[in-house]
Each structure stands twice: as structure tokens, then as C-alpha cells.
Amino acid sequence: MHRILLAIGLWITVSAPLLAQDRDTKVRNDRKAFQASTDWIYNDLAEGIRAAKAADKPLFVVLRCIPCEACQEFDDDVARRDPIIRDLLDAYVCVRIVQANTLDLTRFQDDFDQSFAVFLMNPDLTIYGRYGTRSERPEFQDISLQGLRKAMAEGLRMHKAYAAVKPALAGKQPRPVQFQTPLEYPSLAGKYTTTINYSENTVRSCMHCHQIRDAEREFYRHTSGTIPTEVIFPYPDPSVLGLTMDPKEMATVARVAPGSVADRAGLQQGDTIVSLDGQTLLSTADLQWILQNTPATAKLAAEVQRDGKARSVTLDLGPDWREGDISWRTSTWNLRRMALGGMRLEDMDDQQRREANLPAQGMALRARHVGQFGDHALAKKAGLVQGDILVAVDGHTERMSESQLIADLLRRRKPGEVVSLTFLRGGEKTTVSFAQQ
Fold this sequence. Notes:
Pdz3 Domain; five-stranded mixed β-sheet; Glutaredoxin; alpha+beta; 16 helices; 31% helix
């Protein structure tokens, strides 16, 4: 009965019209909902480890950025222990971490543009698998409770056979990092304390996950001057391989783009990718972890199940394979400041080009937004306004996406170096310049 009443309390709290609440209230209400829970350990990984060891259960660790609206509905379903996953949650010790301030980056490495992620772990913090994917697509096209359930079931299987499977889990474990916690990054040092202030300015005291990605890029920018490709394009979506994954499965192919890397490798709709590069896949997030740690060129061996039969295929990744669309990422705003003077650009489609009498393969990047304040106002100060069409930037006149242009500038140009750009407004061309940040 206690669990039923608690579940009702959680449902009322997380199902309230959160959009009507201010952001501070959302964070405070989250703590209020979970502090009394007997099913969730709140913001205390050490207690979760102790409880998991005592119960001989694996850990189900949720990382959640509370103020962010993305994945809120899915997080609510997990938080109130939706019937689809409730019985499997009982087999785990469940921990909810809602602040990134002191997140142990030697243990938790993730796509920090996400606002929700799950780590399935042994009590010794060996990772069985990851769950949670975010893209420009609607939430339900990337994740589902059905897919999470299947990942959880596989995590439980691994836990029961831990001694036998542990050697094969080596590739899933975190890589060496420059800083153990986000607070150690130079651009974040001194801006936050180790705990959230629940009395006032609550959201301001809570570091957002995307700020970790921002800090990583700032570190490269101000130490080496340029930013590596893998840092500009983190955790590539499977679409860079030509894959669309089925969110209701662990790693099953929903579609293959003709002529893509996946198509050339022979992958087909309905294939289940059992393992990639020697790692068992529990989810699309596991696939992205492998891609994140794959070099600029590589051949990745995949074991596939098709019509009940095992097959082996090889994905041949050539130069620029990871350069997908990053325009949807929150952390791209900071890259726009560095490279584009605070502009948000969009490549004009063929119809728009014809209407503007612009060539099909030339640069035509329309300014959807021009920053108005502070460091994001460099383009504005140079004379650009919303609606201007960039036709040449730093010697480039060919057709490019915003993501491609950002990457090119951040890999070639260091802070302080001046770039010129030519834009169209009312049929007239104007050339201006500003310094990279």
C-alpha cells in the first residue's frame, strides 16, 4: 500500500502542468517528490552503490537535467515506474542524479546535449549498457519504454553472468578524461558550488549538462586554438551511417538510406545489430558510444541477426564520416558565437534558391537569427541582420550546411583571426569581417 500511495504522489507531482511552473519550482518539486521515495535514491550515488551491493542488484542510474523540457514526458514515465518497466525496475537499485556540478566524469561519459540518460551498471560501476538518445527528431522516434525494457532485461542477464561477461565489457567503459568533475574545467571553475541551492536562484546554482560540452570545447579553443572534429561532432547519430533505428527495439534497423555507409555494407531493414566493434548493443546509445570513440577512418565489424540467421558485415568509415547535423544541439549556440559571430544559419532549399535567383550548388546560408547581446553580437556589430543571405565565407563559395561551415572555421581559424563574409540584402552584395572568438 505504501508503494501505491507513493507512486500516486509521484504521478501527481511529475504529471502536473510543469510548463506552467517556473524553472526553480520544477527543480524543487523534483526533490520533494523523490526524497520520500523508497524506490529511488536521490542524488546519492554512494548510497546507491551501498544498497546495490547489499541487495546484489545492478544499478539503474538516471541522469536528468530537470529544467530542460526535452525528454520530460519520458522521464516522467520512468520516474513513476510505468507498468511497462515496473517489474524490471524492482530488479535494480534505482538512483536519480539531477545535478552535473560534481558529476564524476571518469564514470559517467555521455552525450551531454541530452537531458535524460540511463546507465545500467554493476555495483562496482562497470557499465553494462547505456540508454537514451536525442536528436532533431521528436522524442518518441528515438526512445521508448519498450526499448528501455529490452535493454534492462539484457542488463539483468549480464549481471547474472557477470564473471563470464565482464571481459567483453571492456569497450563499454569510460575513457581517460582531462578533468574528473565539470567544476575543474577552467571556464566553469568558481561559477558553481558543489550543491544546488534549493532556497533561491535554484536553477542558476545547478549546472546544465550541455555546459560540460561547452566547457570541453572552450578548453580546446583556448589551449590549442582549434577544436577537434570529434569534439565538434560528439556522439554521432546513426544517420551518419545511413541508419534509422527502431526505438522499440535494442538495436534493430528501421531504415537504410540508399548509397550510405550502411547500405554499402549490406545492412537491411529489420536487421538486428547484435554487436559492433566487439561490443554488445543494448540500445542506440550503445551504438553512439562506439561511434563517439571511433577514429577518423575505420572499419567496424558488425554481427547481425537477419531472419534468424547470423551474418557478419563491415562498415567502412571514410574521412568526414561523423560530420552530421549538429544544428539541433543546445551546445551549438556556443559554437555559433565562436565561428559565426552569433548567427544561426540555414541552407536555402532549391525552391528558395530559384526564387532568389541563386545557383543550386553555391553557398546560400540565410541568417535565421543574429545575436543581439554580448559576445553573440559580433555579426550584428559587423552589420548583419536577420534575413541576410551569406554567399561567401572565408574563401568558401560552395554549397555548405551551417554545421559544415562551423566545423571548417573552428578547425582552421584560431581566436582573434579575422574572417570575411559576403552577404546579399535586397539584391545588393556587401562584404564585412570580424574576428573569431
